[in-house]
Write a structure and sequence with these properties.
Layout: E1 2-9, E2 12-19, E3 22-30, E4 40-49, E5 54-58, E6 65-68, H1 69-72, H2 75-80, H3 86-89, E7 95-102, E8 111-113, E9 118-119, E10 123-126, E11 132-134, H4 141-154, E12 160-163, H5 172-190, E13 200-203, H6 208-216, E14 222-226, H7 229-237, E15 250-252, H8 262-270, E16 275-277, E17 283-288, E18 293-298, H9 308-330, E19 334-339, H10 346-360, E20 368-372, E21 378-382, H11 389-393
Parallel strand pairs: 1-14, 6-8, 11-12, 14-15, 18-19
Antiparallel strand pairs: 1-2, 2-3, 4-5, 4-7, 4-13, 5-6, 7-8, 9-10, 10-12, 16-17, 17-18, 19-21, 20-21
Helix pairs in contact: 4-5, 9-10
Length: 408
């Protein structure tokens, strides 16, 4: 069973995505703790650092935001591939329109870009690109061609777009209408240039609860369980974002409580454990550091029945599926290094990597398997958008300062 649960109590929202009765995503936020990703601001450049190829922008949200030179290029510079330095692009005191693409992490402020993108129900408007892109999940070649033809017909001023997965088989007039609506939003954002006061938020992305619903719910077999009437009514009001009729798939159950659901609680607890057991008796160990996340696999109590090679292969394949789920559940981003149990046979290595890639496909953050190092370590990268689950809802121990050890 696949469903989304939304538990909203005492000013705290807890959102989870359950697939095949296992928790695969979990988010929590307080009502007064707004997320910044997706928001658009009129900001002011505070510092331009040529040596770093970056600028820091005051967007009015505490810490100054980081703007890389490549995210500061104008569309003409992108099209001409002109590699100007940051001081040729921006000056201190400049007012610019930026969008947050990464939350503040630790001592670092949020990361921003001038390349605004505006998500809709079926389309993501990409004003800094003239390309028409189609979701890779749309496999039918005729449907891909149909959407591309619609995009060419709808395109105005060479403003590009991305057709989302749920745009498949949607009527042409509906898609063109949404594209025009997103153009209107973009025009309002562009018209904010040069106005006062600065800094100022000029476009607000949906709150976390509704953003997760928008991005996840358009799968046909999902249901939503909500225990708060106000949130329930708001989700129904956001019908614009859904591809299908939603009334029968959104369930108001004010008695629903994740604290009383043993399966959900077990998966949440597991998301904070360093050691995660596998059904076979093997286990994986996950260590998050500031630089990267290291994952180690061990056979544990599993001794197999046929041969050592068979035991190692089965453990690694089982671990690959669990690793994909844990990365998604813990929202781990950045560099990830996996130390599978050593395999000598190239076919076995291929089987394990294929299993890992297969389970990565359902992750909206699209982890990328970079390759295998000379030390047989698997390198993975995953887009880092927000703090990991552990960092989001816990603090460092004041005694050991996060090391997990104290002196004797």
């Amino acid at each position: 069973m696949n469903y989304i649960f939304i538990s909203s109590k005492n000013g705290i929202n807890k959102v989870g995505v359950v697939e095949e009765n296992r928790l695969v995503e979990f988010y929590t936020e307080e009502d007064n703790n707004e997320k910044l990703v997706g928001n658009v601001y009129r900001g002011r450049v505070e510092n331009v650092l040529k040596g770093m190829g970056a600028a820091f922008v005051d967007i009015g949200e505490g810490k100054n935001a980081y703007l890389n030179v490549k995210d500061a290029y104008s569309r003409n510079q992108l099209l001409s591939r002109k590699n100007d330095t940051i001081d040729q692009v921006l000056k201190s005191g400049d007012d610019i329109i930026v969008q947050v693409i990464k939350e503040a992490l630790g001592a670092k402020g949020p990361k921003v870009t001038t390349h605004i993108s505006i998500p809709g129900r079926y389309i993501v408007l990409t004003p800094f690109s003239k390309d028409i892109n189609i979701s890779r999940k749309i496999k039918d070649s005729f449907e891909v061609k149909r959407l591309r033809d619609i995009g060419e017909k709808a395109k105005v001023d060479d403003i590009g777009m991305i057709f989302r997965t749920n745009s498949g088989e949607v009527k042409e007039e509906v898609l063109i209408d949404e594209y025009n609506q997103l153009l209107d939003i973009n025009a309002k954002i562009e018209n904010q240039k040069g106005f006062l006061p600065t800094p100022k938020r000029i476009y607000k992305e949906l709150d976390l609860v509704y953003k997760i619903v928008r991005d996840t719910f358009n799968e046909r077999d999902y249901q939503i369980i909500v225990n708060n009437k106000e949130v329930y009514d708001h989700i129904l009001e956001l019908g614009y974002f859904y591809s299908y009729s939603v009334e029968n798939r959104i369930i108001l159950d004010e008695k629903f409580c994740i604290e009383e659901n043993k399966d959900i609680q077990s998966d949440i607890q597991q998301a904070f454990d360093r050691k995660v057991m596998l059904k076979s008796g093997g286990y994986i160990v996950i260590d998050e550091t500031e630089a990267l996340t290291a994952i180690d696999i061990n056979t544990g109590k599993y001794v197999g029945a046929l041969s050592l090679r068979d035991t190692i292969l089965k453990t690694n394949v089982e671990a690959a599926e669990e690793i994909a789920r844990q990365i998604r559940l813990r929202d781990i981003g950045g560099i990830i290094i996996v130390d599978f149990i050593d395999m000598k046979n190239k076919n076995d290595i291929s089987v394990v990597l294929s299993s890992l890639a297969k389970h990565f496909k359902i992750d909206r953050n699209k982890p990328n398997i970079v390759g295998v190092t000379k030390l047989n370590l698997v390198e993975i990268t995953r887009k880092k958008i927000r703090p990991t689950l552990d960092n989001a809802i816990s603090v460092k121990c004041p005694t050991c300062l996060g090391r997990g050890r104290v002196q004797k």
